[in-house]
Amino acid sequence: MAPASQTGAGRVGAVTTDPALEVLLQRLDPDLPVPSYAHPGDAGADLVTRVDVVISPQGRVTVPTGTAIALPDGYAAFVHPRSGLAARHGLTIVNAPGTVDAGYRGEIAVTLLNTDVEHPVELHRGDRVAQLVVQKVERVRFVEVERLPGSHRGEGGFGSSGGWRSAAAAAPAEQAAGPDA
Length: 181
Hints:
alpha+beta
Protein backbone atom coordinates (compact mmCIF):
# COMPACT_ATOMS: atom_id res chain seq x y z
CA MET A 1 0.00 0.00 0.00
CA ALA A 2 1.29 3.48 -0.82
CA PRO A 3 2.26 5.79 2.03
CA ALA A 4 -0.35 8.36 3.06
CA SER A 5 1.71 11.13 1.48
CA GLN A 6 1.23 9.52 -1.95
CA THR A 7 -2.51 8.89 -1.59
CA GLY A 8 -3.49 12.31 -0.34
CA ALA A 9 -4.56 11.01 3.06
CA GLY A 10 -4.19 13.52 5.84
CA ARG A 11 -4.66 16.63 3.68
CA VAL A 12 -7.84 18.63 4.14
CA GLY A 13 -10.12 18.18 1.14
CA ALA A 14 -7.87 15.52 -0.40
CA VAL A 15 -9.44 12.50 -2.02
CA THR A 16 -7.85 9.30 -0.78
CA THR A 17 -7.58 6.27 -3.02
CA ASP A 18 -7.24 3.89 -0.06
CA PRO A 19 -10.40 1.80 0.26
CA ALA A 20 -12.01 1.48 3.66
CA LEU A 21 -12.45 -2.27 3.19
CA GLU A 22 -9.52 -4.54 2.38
CA VAL A 23 -10.30 -7.43 0.04
CA LEU A 24 -7.73 -10.17 -0.44
CA LEU A 25 -6.92 -10.64 -4.13
CA GLN A 26 -5.01 -13.36 -5.95
CA ARG A 27 -3.71 -12.33 -9.36
CA LEU A 28 -3.95 -15.51 -11.45
CA ASP A 29 -2.22 -13.88 -14.41
CA PRO A 30 0.72 -11.68 -13.38
CA ASP A 31 0.68 -9.77 -16.67
CA LEU A 32 -2.85 -8.41 -16.16
CA PRO A 33 -3.75 -5.47 -13.92
CA VAL A 34 -5.67 -5.94 -10.69
CA PRO A 35 -9.22 -4.54 -10.70
CA SER A 36 -9.05 -0.76 -10.38
CA TYR A 37 -11.31 2.27 -10.23
CA ALA A 38 -11.04 4.57 -13.25
CA HIS A 39 -12.13 7.73 -11.39
CA PRO A 40 -12.41 8.90 -7.79
CA GLY A 41 -15.86 8.07 -6.47
CA ASP A 42 -16.50 5.22 -8.94
CA ALA A 43 -18.56 2.38 -7.48
CA GLY A 44 -17.21 -0.32 -9.80
CA ALA A 45 -13.64 -1.51 -10.29
CA ASP A 46 -12.86 -2.58 -13.85
CA LEU A 47 -12.31 -6.26 -14.63
CA VAL A 48 -10.36 -7.27 -17.75
CA THR A 49 -10.48 -10.30 -20.03
CA ARG A 50 -7.67 -12.79 -19.77
CA VAL A 51 -8.13 -13.99 -23.36
CA ASP A 52 -8.65 -12.72 -26.89
CA VAL A 53 -12.15 -13.53 -28.09
CA VAL A 54 -14.59 -12.76 -30.89
CA ILE A 55 -18.25 -12.87 -29.88
CA SER A 56 -20.49 -13.56 -32.85
CA PRO A 57 -23.73 -11.63 -33.35
CA GLN A 58 -26.17 -12.70 -30.62
CA GLY A 59 -23.46 -15.02 -29.29
CA ARG A 60 -22.29 -15.45 -25.75
CA VAL A 61 -18.97 -16.43 -24.24
CA THR A 62 -17.54 -16.73 -20.74
CA VAL A 63 -14.22 -14.95 -20.31
CA PRO A 64 -11.81 -15.40 -17.39
CA THR A 65 -10.54 -12.25 -15.65
CA GLY A 66 -7.32 -13.50 -14.06
CA THR A 67 -8.63 -12.44 -10.64
CA ALA A 68 -9.77 -14.35 -7.56
CA ILE A 69 -10.85 -12.61 -4.35
CA ALA A 70 -11.68 -13.44 -0.74
CA LEU A 71 -14.43 -11.18 0.53
CA PRO A 72 -15.06 -10.79 4.25
CA ASP A 73 -18.24 -12.38 5.62
CA GLY A 74 -21.17 -10.02 5.23
CA TYR A 75 -20.04 -8.79 1.80
CA ALA A 76 -20.66 -9.83 -1.80
CA ALA A 77 -19.32 -8.58 -5.10
CA PHE A 78 -21.57 -7.93 -8.07
CA VAL A 79 -20.33 -8.06 -11.67
CA HIS A 80 -22.03 -5.35 -13.76
CA PRO A 81 -21.83 -4.53 -17.48
CA ARG A 82 -19.76 -1.56 -18.64
CA SER A 83 -22.06 1.13 -20.02
CA GLY A 84 -19.73 2.08 -22.88
CA LEU A 85 -19.57 -1.47 -24.22
CA ALA A 86 -23.34 -1.75 -24.00
CA ALA A 87 -23.98 1.59 -25.72
CA ARG A 88 -21.36 1.27 -28.47
CA HIS A 89 -21.36 -2.47 -29.17
CA GLY A 90 -24.47 -3.98 -27.59
CA LEU A 91 -22.28 -6.03 -25.24
CA THR A 92 -23.83 -6.93 -21.90
CA ILE A 93 -23.64 -9.60 -19.21
CA VAL A 94 -26.07 -12.51 -19.37
CA ASN A 95 -26.75 -12.76 -15.63
CA ALA A 96 -26.27 -9.11 -14.73
CA PRO A 97 -25.35 -8.58 -12.10
CA GLY A 98 -23.37 -11.73 -11.51
CA THR A 99 -22.90 -12.50 -7.82
CA VAL A 100 -19.57 -13.35 -6.20
CA ASP A 101 -20.31 -14.73 -2.73
CA ALA A 102 -17.96 -14.24 0.22
CA GLY A 103 -17.08 -17.94 0.28
CA TYR A 104 -16.15 -18.21 -3.42
CA ARG A 105 -12.41 -18.51 -4.06
CA GLY A 106 -12.24 -19.32 -7.77
CA GLU A 107 -11.42 -17.11 -10.71
CA ILE A 108 -14.03 -14.48 -11.47
CA ALA A 109 -15.41 -15.10 -14.95
CA VAL A 110 -17.86 -12.99 -16.92
CA THR A 111 -20.47 -14.38 -19.32
CA LEU A 112 -20.82 -11.78 -22.05
CA LEU A 113 -23.65 -11.50 -24.58
CA ASN A 114 -23.39 -9.68 -27.90
CA THR A 115 -26.92 -8.34 -28.49
CA ASP A 116 -26.05 -6.97 -31.95
CA VAL A 117 -27.73 -9.01 -34.70
CA GLU A 118 -25.18 -8.17 -37.42
CA HIS A 119 -21.73 -7.37 -36.02
CA PRO A 120 -19.33 -9.47 -33.96
CA VAL A 121 -17.52 -7.94 -30.98
CA GLU A 122 -13.76 -8.46 -30.79
CA LEU A 123 -12.09 -8.30 -27.38
CA HIS A 124 -8.37 -8.45 -26.70
CA ARG A 125 -6.54 -9.71 -23.65
CA GLY A 126 -6.47 -6.88 -21.09
CA ASP A 127 -9.62 -5.13 -22.39
CA ARG A 128 -11.97 -3.95 -19.66
CA VAL A 129 -15.14 -6.05 -19.88
CA ALA A 130 -17.08 -5.55 -16.63
CA GLN A 131 -17.22 -3.70 -13.33
CA LEU A 132 -16.97 -5.28 -9.88
CA VAL A 133 -19.04 -3.60 -7.15
CA VAL A 134 -18.46 -4.76 -3.57
CA GLN A 135 -21.37 -4.27 -1.19
CA LYS A 136 -22.32 -5.12 2.34
CA VAL A 137 -25.18 -7.64 2.35
CA GLU A 138 -27.60 -8.76 5.02
CA ARG A 139 -28.51 -12.33 5.87
CA VAL A 140 -32.16 -12.66 6.80
CA ARG A 141 -34.35 -15.14 8.62
CA PHE A 142 -37.46 -15.86 6.58
CA VAL A 143 -40.65 -16.03 8.66
CA GLU A 144 -43.54 -17.85 7.02
CA VAL A 145 -46.97 -16.27 7.51
CA GLU A 146 -50.47 -17.04 6.21
CA ARG A 147 -50.86 -13.59 4.66
CA LEU A 148 -48.56 -10.63 4.10
CA PRO A 149 -49.51 -7.21 5.46
CA GLY A 150 -50.96 -4.80 2.91
CA SER A 151 -48.98 -2.06 1.20
CA HIS A 152 -49.67 0.83 -1.16
CA ARG A 153 -48.17 -1.09 -4.08
CA GLY A 154 -49.79 -4.43 -3.34
CA GLU A 155 -49.03 -7.03 -6.00
CA GLY A 156 -48.30 -4.52 -8.79
CA GLY A 157 -45.16 -5.35 -10.72
CA PHE A 158 -43.78 -5.74 -14.24
CA GLY A 159 -44.51 -2.22 -15.44
CA SER A 160 -47.37 -1.44 -13.07
CA SER A 161 -46.00 2.06 -12.48
CA GLY A 162 -46.33 2.94 -16.19
CA GLY A 163 -43.79 5.10 -17.93
CA TRP A 164 -44.54 4.78 -21.64
CA ARG A 165 -47.61 5.33 -23.80
CA SER A 166 -47.41 2.21 -25.95
CA ALA A 167 -47.76 0.01 -22.85
CA ALA A 168 -50.75 2.00 -21.62
CA ALA A 169 -52.48 1.66 -25.01
CA ALA A 170 -51.89 -2.10 -25.11
CA ALA A 171 -53.15 -2.74 -21.56
CA PRO A 172 -56.91 -2.25 -22.24
CA ALA A 173 -56.76 -4.59 -25.24
CA GLU A 174 -54.99 -7.28 -23.19
CA GLN A 175 -57.46 -6.90 -20.31
CA ALA A 176 -60.45 -7.18 -22.68
CA ALA A 177 -59.03 -10.36 -24.23
CA GLY A 178 -58.74 -12.02 -20.81
CA PRO A 179 -55.94 -14.10 -19.30
CA ASP A 180 -56.42 -17.10 -21.62
CA ALA A 181 -56.20 -15.13 -24.90
